[in-house]
């Protein structure tokens, strides 16, 4: 294999990795959000959450579809979603955190949305036209997700003593899972060098500002950046992912070769 | 149906001559096919019956999210997951339109929830059955939404304006629900033998409960006669059930399935199917709270409501704070 070819193989692998991360974040968060369906604290919230889940599942189809194309081994978005085991999933740990109470679900959504929004905005200028196109479409949806989760975090933080207490507890519990969003590795460096995606660390400052401003309005206290949990991006997950996958993949595993 | 055996208050339907002038004018408007709007005079019985019917329908939509929601996380493809999410979301929307329609009759959504949670208000018997396999999601769309359409399409012409208009919006979406259900089954019967077996099993379990959705024969029911006179019910239960069977049996045949009724036979003379009698003792047991999932369904709704109290209170408190802050800044500016 020549040197040029080797580079392009490595670049391709990094792009594949990046696309899996995008798709898996959307898939696993969409899965978690969809668990609320029929159980939300108000009918309007049920509708809004289904909407968010629906957007995220739609984005999953796009990212994983492109991932399969880039990989070039004939795997579809469904193959990637339904027939990989946990060690091949690339989502950050934050999105697999259990739903907890509605406050924790909203806080997880806000912390993720703020990052997702900033990343998609940057991806609109990706050197890869296919990535830019997906980002453009997803950004419209995610801007709305962020408006909504941000607004609810503010209202509940600055609501009753009880709602304030719950939102602060959710924030404190989830904070150690936010660091992974900004940690880069070799595939990140590769796609950044190609102008496909920004370096994860470059999103940290605008994210800190957006989050701090929101939390201040919500009268919530930003936790200090202590030890940060990590591993999801390279396939080392929490115990929760296995259970998510056993639900998600049950039918494809139990009825191999079925038509749906 | 989504509203089953809705009671009216009177002992019998009175003739125009027996009515006082105000009520007579009201009945004549209904007879002429005019719509009644919220602010207008209406007999108390009409109002109460409609509240029962619309709230029962609304409760059915939101409880109905649960058996289908049960399979969202396990849907077999991303596409199926998205379609099911959209469908269940529609049902929540239907609940919302219907609660709003009922509110125009002077009852609040919280009061209606209270009645659902206390067991005072009913919802359709069908949602007390479990969804045990993915084929059940197909069967629910095909049969349950199919049965709902039978009843709701004519109700778009019902006499109460807000209910009629809510039903127009609802019916547009219900036919998509039925099609997606049928489509799930179409794909599965073309799949492996194990998949086809799931589909037959789903039909075996859902067939009779679907026929029961229309309620027992009401040809002799005063309540139904009164509701028909008020044009808030358009067809008898038996009429709708017959129509449903006639429409559904050929579809089952198309899928290559056997309808679990040994008495099912085409009757050339009546131009429809003869079919067996559902087990009404099962129906009454389910209505009385003894169906396989009554307790789970109601517990899930109550849990959602109780666990969400702090959330709703938080939003109210924030709105009050924001209002008083606005007031304070207005005073400061003056
Ligand atoms: Fe509906
Ligand atoms: Fe329905
Ligand atoms: Fe429906």
If you had to describe this structure to a student in words, what would you say it looks like?
The complex is a heterodimer of chains A (260) and B (334). Chain A is mostly helical. Chain A has one domain: Ferritin, CATH 1.20.1260.10. Helix content of chain A is 65%, strand content 0%. Chain A has helices spanning 3-34, 43-71, 77-82, 102-123, 129-157, 161-174, 186-193, 204-217, 240-248, 250-254. In chain A, helix 1 packs across helix 7 (186-193) and helix 4 packs antiparallel against helix 5. The longest helix of chain A is centred in the N-terminal third of the chain and has 32 residues, at 3-34. Chain A starts with a helix and ends in a 6-residue tail after the last helix. Chain B has 334 residues and is mainly α. In chain B, strands 1-2 form a two-stranded antiparallel ribbon. In chain B, a hairpin with a 4-residue loop joins strand 1 (265-267) and strand 2. Chain B is globular, with a radius of gyration of 22 Å. The termini of chain B are far apart. The mean pLDDT of chain B is 96. At the A-B interface, helix 1, helix 2, helix 3, helix 5 and helix 6 of A face helix 3, helix 4, helix 7, helix 12 and helix 13 of B. One fe (ii) ion binds at residues 91, 145, 174, 177 of chain B.
